[in-house]
Amino acid sequence: MSRVIIIVIALTCFYSCDIQLDRFNEFFSQEYHQTEIEINRNQSMGSFKRYLDSLSCSIAFSDKEENNLPFIYFNPKSKRITNKKNNSYKLGLYLYPCQYGEFDILYRNKLEIRMDTNMEIAIENIKVRLDSIPNFVKTHILNFGKDPNYSTKPQSALIEISLDNKLVVGDMEPILDKVIEGYRNTLLFYLDQSKRNIEDLSEEEIKKVKEEIPFNIWIESQQLKLPPPKEPRKNKLTHPNSGS
Question: What is the pTM of this model?
C-alpha cells in the first residue's frame, strides 16, 4: 500500500510540475517573438552581441518587423540555454534599436546586471551575490514609480544582461536562471494580491497579465548605442529588502 501511495504522490508531483512549467512558459514571450536563435554556449559574448546587433538591423528593415523578434530556449531543470523546445521556457528577447529615432528610455526603467571577467556580478555598479538577483528583479518590476531608482511601471521595467566580451554565452546561464526566478516570484506575488492562481487562469486572463507584468529582457549591445537618457537615476541604487 505504501508503495502505491508513493507512486501516486510522485506522479501527482510530476503532473503538477509539468502544468506549472507550461503555465509559466506562456509568460516569458509574446506572440511577436518568432525568430529562434540557434545557441552555441561556447560562443564568445562579443561575437554573440555582434550577431544580435546585426539581427536588430535586419529586423528593423524587414517588412515583418513587428512579428520577428528573437527568442531562446532555457531549461529550468538543467539551468542551461538549449536548442531543445521540450521542458524549456521560451524566452523572448528585446534588441537594442538599430536606429533609435524617437526611441528613448529612462535610466531608472533599465536594471543592468553585469558580469565581469572574474565572474563577479554587479547590479547598476553595486557588487551583489548571485542569489540576490531575484529580489532586485521583483523590486524593479513592482516598483510602480515609488522608488526613483527603480521602474516607473511594470510595462517599462527592463532587465539588461551585460557580460564581458571575453566570456562565453554559457556564462550567462546563472544570471538568466535568477532573473527567471525573480520574474516567477513577481508573477506569483502579483497574482496572489488578487487571490488568483496561475493554474486557474484562462487564456484571456493570461494575455491580460502578460500585458500588465511583461517579461522584458535584453542583452547589452556590442555596437549599437542607446540615446542619452531623458532622466538619469537620482541616487545610487540600494539593495531591496529580502522580503520585498
Answer: 0.85
